[in-house]
Each structure stands twice: as C-alpha cells, then as structure tokens.
Amino acid sequence: MLSIVKLPVSTEWLLHCATSLAQLEPGATASAAQLADYYDLPAPYLAKQLQALVRAGVLSATTGPRGGFRLARAASEITLLQIVEAVDGASTPYECREIRRQGRGALPPEECRSICVLAEKMAGAHRAWRASLAGVSLADILAELPAHAPERTRSRLTGRT
Amino acid sequence: MLSIVKLPVSTEWLLHCATSLAQLEPGATASAAQLADYYDLPAPYLAKQLQALVRAGVLSATTGPRGGFRLARAASEITLLQIVEAVDGASTPYECREIRRQGRGALPPEECRSICVLAEKMAGAHRAWRASLAGVSLADILAELPAHAPERTRSRLTGRT
DNA sequence: CGTATCTCGGACTAAATAGATCCGCAATAT
DNA sequence: ATATTGCGGATCTATTTAGTCCGAGATACG
Questions:
Q1: What is the pLDDT of residues B69-123, one digit of tens each?
Q2: Å between A39 CA and C13 C1'?
Q3: Which one of A67, B13, B17, B72 has the lowest number of neighbouring Cβ atoms within 10 Å?
Q4: What is the Cα Rg of chain B in Å?
Q5: Backbone φ and ψ of A159, nearest 5°
Q6: What is the model's pLDDT at position B5?
Q7: What is the pLDDT of residues A25-45, one digit of tens each?
Q8: Any idea what DSSP says for residue A73?
Q9: In this structure, are residues A34 and A46 in contact, taking their beta carbons and an 8 Å threshold?
Q10: Which candidate in A13, A37, A127, A129 is best for mutational testing of the B interface (most B CBs within 10 A)?
Q11: What distance in Å separates residue A130's CA from the closest CA in chain B?
C-alpha cells in the first residue's frame, strides 16, 4: 500500500541526488559514480534509477568522458511530485475494482453511472497528496539550505568548485 | 509505492464491508461468510482481513451461532483513515534513512539537528493525505447513498430486513 | 446442564511483485 | 583510436501479498 503503502528507498536517493544536481553550476554534470560515492549508495542500482528521471524529462544525460547528469530545466521548474512520480509511477495507490457490481449485493447498472463514492474519496486524498508535492520545487528546497551548502556540494561531488 | 505505491486489493474490500456494516440496524451483525457472499470474495482471506479491523478497534466481533462483525462505534465516529491504516499500516510511505550523513557528502552533525528538508516536505504531503481521509466518516458515505440502499443491503446481506 | 454447531482466531503455504545486480552495446570527448 | 560514460535488457533474490487450513471459544437449543 502508498502501502502506499511504502515508497521504495530509491525515492529518497533520487530526491537527494536531484537536490545536489541543482546546486551545480549551469551546464555542469555529475556522473552516476560520483553521486553514488557522494551518498555511499550502490552505484549500479542508482544508475538505473537515474535513467528513470531522464525518461521522465527531469534530468538530461550526456554520455562519454566527463559526461553525466544535469537538470533538464531550471530548479524552479522541477517539483518534488515530478521526481517522485518518475521513480515509482504516477498510478493511483487505490485502484477501484468495482466490487459493488459483484456478488449478491451487486448494484444495478443505473446506480453505477457515477464513480463509486469510496473511490472518489480515496482519489481526493491522492489529489491532496499530489498537490502538496507539486507545490514544492527544487528551488524551494535550495532556499532552505545554508548559504555555504552549494559550494561544498560542488566541491565534494565533482571535485571542482 | 504508499507504494504506495500501491494499496492492496483488500483495502477496497474492507472499505466496502465497513460501509455495509454501517447500514445494519444497531446491534445487528454479519458474518465473514455473509460479507464474502455479498461481494463475491474469497471467504477465508476476507475473514483474515476483518480481524485486522477488529484489532484496530474499528469493528467488534462476537463468536458463536448468529455471531459476526459489527461496527465498534457509531458510523460518524469511524473515518476512512482509521480503516485504511488498520489494513495496511499507519507507517509513513516515505521513510527518511538519513543518507545526508553518509558518504563523501556527509553533513556535520550540527547541520542535522533538525529534520531533513526533503523528509519534512514528504511528511507534509502525507499529512495532507491523512487529513483528507480523516475528514470523511462512514456516516458521510452513507449520506451520499440512495435512500433505499440501507434496506436493500440489510436484506441481501443478512437475509433480514 | 450438556451437547452440538457455528463463529472467530491465528498459523501455514504458494504466488506475485518489487528490489537489486550484472553484462554487453552505443555514444562522445580526449 | 581509446577510454569513459550512459543505456537497455536479462537475471537473481527477497519481501509482500494472496489464499487456505485447522483449532479454540462462545452461543443457542434440547
């Protein structure tokens, strides 16, 4: 279950990775190996998850030497929701299977024209969750970090200032 | 995922079962077998899930002939959140593992006194989700059903009017 | 008051999904 | 030309979910 019931660990990884990439100078990149080293994470698995962010259009990647990942657009235009849904999908946690139409208690079709009341309430909760995450951009996150954080991140992540 | 990311099928089952139990006359019960027949669900597995609601204090069960399940309190005092969290746990979907303190980029302890900014934003989204579900009671659900629904449910579920 | 029956309760077993890893291919800058 | 990097597929393992079973306890009836 948002058993949800539980988000995978990689969600935390990618939120932090995106935050770090947002602190690089415009155009600069960091490789999957550098990010894995920066957070002490298993490099192969992290690389695979980063690809999901590229497919979702949140990051852009360049291959070859001195290649790596960078934000695909300005930090103010990337929300936490986009990152989270890129990692573990945008599907609704609660999936209505219309059990109201099965069994002895099956409702007549005319009462099933509109969406099930319970499904509607669950969908409303999901909308509230999404709206909360959609209201926070990476720029908002950076604004809450200490002033010296970006330079330190650049130094430790890419080895350059 | 809440993995979320995906909620188990039983969540839908129990939301509907609780709604049906809320339509019975005060004190009346319905057995697991009756509920399973009413929705055409596997009886043993449904019984197992109903026990979770009993443990959570949402339902109360009586054994013996003519026993079964009933609401543990008034429908207006049972929220969708209580049901959902009884089924698949009340844990936060996003679990912060403090990767900010690991690897080359490990932050000094004095910067980790307060909660990680990303974890706080994710927790805020979860609070929004919970608040949405906590604002809907079973009585609210019943109010949106057709006027003739309760009598029909009683008839088909327990065989009595 | 005893007995038989009906109910919940928890333990146990399979199946599916997600987590995690590895290896070969394509692309690019040096 | 070579080395480095991302990309995708195939694979293996582990956790969760789905489903089943049998025993303990309580109630109603004789």
A1: 999 999 999 999 999 998 887 778 888 888 899 889 999 999 999 999 999 999 9
A2: 40
A3: A67
A4: 20
A5: 80, 0
A6: 60
A7: 999 999 999 999 999 998 888
A8: S
A9: no
A10: A129
A11: 7
Segments of chain A scoring below 70 in pLDDT: 1-6, 160-161
Nearest of B64, B70, B61, B62 to residue B28 by alpha carbon? B70
Q: How far is the CA of B82 from the C1' of C29 (A)?
A: 58
What distance in Å separates the CA atoms of residue A94 and residue A3, rounded to the nearest whole number? Answer: 10
Q: Chain D positions under 7 Å from a protein CB?
A: 3-9, 16-22, 24-28
Give the closest of A38, A118, A128 to B19, CB-based: A118
B100: nearest CB among A16, A99, A100: A16
- Number of C-beta neighbours around residue B134 at 10 A: 16
pTM recorded for the entire structure: 0.91
Q: Estimate in Å the CA A50 to C1' C20 gap, whole number.
A: 15
CB contact under 8 A, B132 and A118: no
User: Taking the mean position of all CA atoms in its chain, how far away is CA A25?
Assistant: 22
Mean pLDDT of B45-67: 91
Tokens of A35: 């990010």
CA-to-CA dists, residue B129 to A45, A98, B14, angstroms: 30, 23, 19
